[in-house]
Structure formats: C-alpha cells, structure tokens
Specification:
Elements (H helix, E strand, L loop, with lengths): L7 H7 L10 E4 L2 E4 L5 E22 L5 E7 L12 E5 L2 E6 L7 E3 L3 E10 L4 E5 L8 E5 L3 E4 L1 E4 L1 E5 L5 E3 L14 H7 L18 E3 L25 H9 L23 E4 L3 E3 L4 E7 L11 E7 L5 E9 L10 E6 L6 E7 L11 E10 L7 E14 L11 E8 L2 H4 L8 E3 L7 E5 L7 E5 L5 E6 L4 E3 L6 E9 L2 E9 L1
C-alpha cells in the first residue's frame, strides 16, 4: 500500500463523530542557517506529537532558485519508511506517503526526526521557506482498529545561507586561522563586554559551530560572533577559559607556529636578567617593551613567545606574572608552553576597556623558572629568544614591535645549588592517586607548602608546617610541589594520576 493515496475513506469513518478540536499530529521544520561556503544544507522534519499513527501523507515545497533537492536521509527511520515512500512530481516538490508494512500505528517521542531533506545551495547568499504545501494534501490516520483521520498542524521552516545568514565558529579560534593559540585572546580583548545573539546549540568543543551573525565586525572583516568562544552571547572571561581549554588545537594539517613579526622600527621586547643563574634555583626575568619612554610603545595588546632549549629549563616550574604591567592592572592574559613546539612559552596580554594604555612602554611581565644543568658541567649557556607575534592598538591597527635575544650563564648542578636541607626532602607516594601525600625527611618547620600547575599558577597553598596534604580533588596532571623553609624554596615534581 505504498502508492499515493488520500484519506477520504478514513474521513467518512469519522464524519459522524467530527474532527478533534485540537491537532493530534504536529510536524515542524526548524529555521536552519548555514555560513558562507556551505554547499549542502539539510533540514529535519520533526514530529512534535505523533501518537499511534498508521498512515502519513504530506508534501514539501521550496524555492528552486535558491535550493536544489539532493536527497532524503532517513537516519534511524522511526516510521519504517521503505523505498516507495517518496516521489518528486515537480522540481520544487517532494511527496511523502506511507503505511508501515504491518499496518500498525507508531507512536514517536516528541522531537523525533522523521527524516532530513537535503539541498544544494544555488547562490552565495540566499534563503527559501520549506513548507508542507504542494502535490499531496496533508493527511494522517490513527490505528484504533480502523484507520481514523486526525487533524494536524504542520509548521513550515526555512533555510538561509551565506555570510549574512550565519557564521561558522571554532570555539577559541577568534581570528579564523583554524587553530587556537595565544593571539586568540586579542580579539576577545578588543570587544570585551560586547553582547550579541547566543549560539542555539552551545558547545565549546573544537568543531565548527553555526552562530547567528552579530551586529559588528572586526577591522579584518570577521564577525564579532567569532570571538564568542563560549557561545553565551557575551564576550567575557568564559571566552578566555575556552581559549585555554582548546589551546593548541587545529583543523590544519599541522599546527602553524605564530610568525615572527619583528620590525626594527618598533620598540624592542627585551629580557632583563641576572648574568649568572644557579641551576636548580628559581630565577625571575623581566620582559620589557622599550625603555618606558617610547611613545610608539603605547598600545592595547601584545603577543610574543619565549624560546629556549627545553632541556635547560624545568617546564613545570614556569610561571608568568603580569603585576605592574605597563598595559594595566586588569588584563586578559594567557601563558602556555606550546606542546606543538619544543621550548616555546607563548604569552599574550590585552586590555579590555577599548582604550590604549597611556604608559609609553615598560615592564610587560615577569617569568619565573628553574634553570637546569643536565650535563653536570660547571657552567652552561642558556639562550633566551623573544619572538614578537602581535602588537595592536585599541583601534585594531597593528603597531611595529621588535624582538631580541639574551645569553645567560647557568652555574653548577641542581644538587649543589639547593639548600642543604633539600637532600632530606622526599614525597610519598609519587605518582599520587588519593589519600594523604606525605612530605618526608628530617626537615625544619615549613613556612608554607604550595602546589603550582605547569604554567606556574598557584593551585593550592598551606601556610605553616604541613607534612601531609591532600591533592585528591585536583585533576590528573603533573604539578610542582614547593616547600618553603626560612625563606628558601625547593621544588619537586609530583604526578597526580
């Protein structure tokens, strides 16, 4: 019984009782938007109410100047459609009719997709309504021992496509280079606190998400919606959090390291450090832009990388501090050791008030780390290279900036340079899973015990002589345990599994 039919016979069966006051069957097509570059778009036909239905008949109609039909996708095929359920009597219409093979009614949960209708777009930009008008009248019947026609409501939808209809967003990739790195916080800073439409299906997974275009665009032409990494409709700290979570992800065949934008005409990013560092002891270097009196150093945001030999630096000891930065006190910032490149710490900072700093350069941040001397030689050389990746003004224009390098001497071995009590220090169990983590050894009273993450950020702290601590609630990762006694600090790695 797969030929097209009308349900006039069923109408006669129920004529004496009259039709139901309310629709028994409700089908809907949503409004679907697709970003520029999309060539095929599918819309679902959704069963909002579908109780004990045994026969269906309806048509779909669209504008062939905007869409060309390609196929129906049955997916889970909840109504058991077979190969004879559809035909195209005309180019802008598809007719659907079906009775299940066992002629028994089927009840579908609200929201069940009957099938998807797929189309190719015909223009760069366009739209078409998708209605239930067309070749066959819409008719449905319930299985109550006889086929009884029931009233229905069919809600039309639409397809809109092109740059004015939708934006494709990769959460965390705010500059549309198909990957996430430190430069992606800059666009967040440019429009911080700006609001627009939230994404319908909010996900921060690194996969293309369709978003409604916002009212504004960056000077690059990108729509503001690209910076809404969280999808909540506001540019805020949640977007920075998504950049951190998705850092290093890419859709490119390989991760592209941010290019060196050094320009001799610009102020110099330089490293201020002691000439001699002690292996095994934490040291702090200062990153400066210019000398604090260069009007060309006035800006809004910057991004750069510190490159070094990773065998000569304890990566887990690195931490970055923006206190006293010439850019301001309340900054968006990020610092990440890029796992896609050896010995590369990527750093960025941005204001978020849409105003340039009035300070003509100076201190950008400090970087603390523990230098290593793995060969055990008396001295070794550590080269630190500053690679600028971006320097921008509040008006989103690019400004010139230059990089620099510095060689420092690393003296002695870790064991020689640690305080004498460090030889007694041990941690058990390590790796750690649960329960108390014991800090063992014949040691003087502790001033404090700290746990730092791999970026050097403080995770937990205990003030006083704590010999057992609990890390059970921390995510599995490698941390740096820091014990402080009489102003001297010793660091040990601890692995949480």
């Amino acid at each position: 019984m797969n030929n097209f039919f009308t349900l006039a016979f069923a109408a006669l069966l129920c004529a004496s009782n009259g039709l139901f006051a309310q629709s028994v069957v409700i089908l809907s097509i949503p409004d679907v938007v697709a970003p520029e570059g999309t060539t095929e778009v599918c819309v679902p036909v959704v069963a909002d109410t579908f109780p004990n239905i045994v026969t269906v008949q309806f048509s779909l109609e669209w504008d062939t100047t905007q869409l060309l039909f390609t196929e129906l996708r049955l997916g889970d095929n909840p109504f058991s459609f077979d190969g004879m359920y559809s035909s195209m009597p005309v180019s802008n219409n598809i007719a659907i009719s079906h009775i299940p093979a066992d002629s028994r009614g089927i009840t579908l949960d609200p929201g069940t997709v009957l099938f998807e209708a797929c189309f190719n777009t015909t223009q760069m930009e366009g739209s078409s309504t998708i209605t239930f008008d067309g070749f066959l009248p819409s008719e449905f019947a319930q299985d109550d021992g006889t086929f009884t026609a029931v009233p229905n409501t069919l809600n039309a939808g639409s397809i809109s496509y092109g740059s004015d209809a939708a934006v494709s967003v990769l959460p965390g990739d705010t500059n549309d280079d198909q990957q996430v790195d430190h430069r992606d916080i800059i666009n967040i800073g440019h429009i911080f606190n700006t609001s627009g439409p939230s994404r319908t299906s909010v996900s921060t997974a690194f996969a293309a998400q369709v978003a409604t275009p916002w009212a504004g665009s960056f000077s690059s032409g990108l729509n503001y919606a690209e910076a809404d990494a969280s999808g909540n409709g506001t540019i805020d700290f949640e977007d920075l959090a998504v950049v951190r979570v998705n850092y290093g992800m890419t859709l490119n065949s390989a991760f592209n390291i941010a290019p060196d934008v050094s320009n001799e005409a610009g102020p110099v990013l330089s490293i201020e450090s002691e000439e001699v560092l002690n292996a095994g002891e934490e040291t702090t270097v200062t990153i400066n832009l210019g000398e604090g009196s260069n009007p060309d150093a006035v800006g809004y945001a910057l991004a750069f990388a510190l490159e070094f030999d990773p065998s000569l630096v304890d990566l887990n000891s690195i931490r970055v501090d923006f206190d006293g930065s010439f850019l301001g006190d309340d900054l968006l910032n990020i610092s990440q050791v890029n796992s896609r490149a050896d010995g590369r710490l990527e750093i960025a900072a941005s204001r978020k008030d849409q105003l340039n700093t009035t300070t003509p350069g100076g201190k950008v941040c400090t970087i603390s780390f523990i230098p290593l001397n793995p060969g055990g030689s008396e001295t070794s050389s550590l080269e630190l290279d500053i690679i600028p990746n971006a320097f921008v003004r509040a008006n989103q224009s690019e400004a010139a900036i230059n990089g620099s390098s510095l060689d420092v001497e690393v003296q002695g071995s870790s064991a020689i340079r640690e305080p004498s009590w460090a030889a007694e220090l041990s941690i058990f169990p390590n790796p750690y899973t649960s329960g108390p983590l014991s800090i063992r050894g014949e040691l003087p009273a502790f001033d404090a015990v700290k746990v730092l993450d791999q970026s050097g950020r403080l995770v937990k702290e205990w003030k006083g002589n704590f010999r057992q601590i609990d890390l059970e609630n921390l995510p599995n990762a490698t941390y740096l345990l820091q014990v402080e006694i009489a102003g001297e600090m010793v660091n040990r790695k601890v692995i949480k599994q």
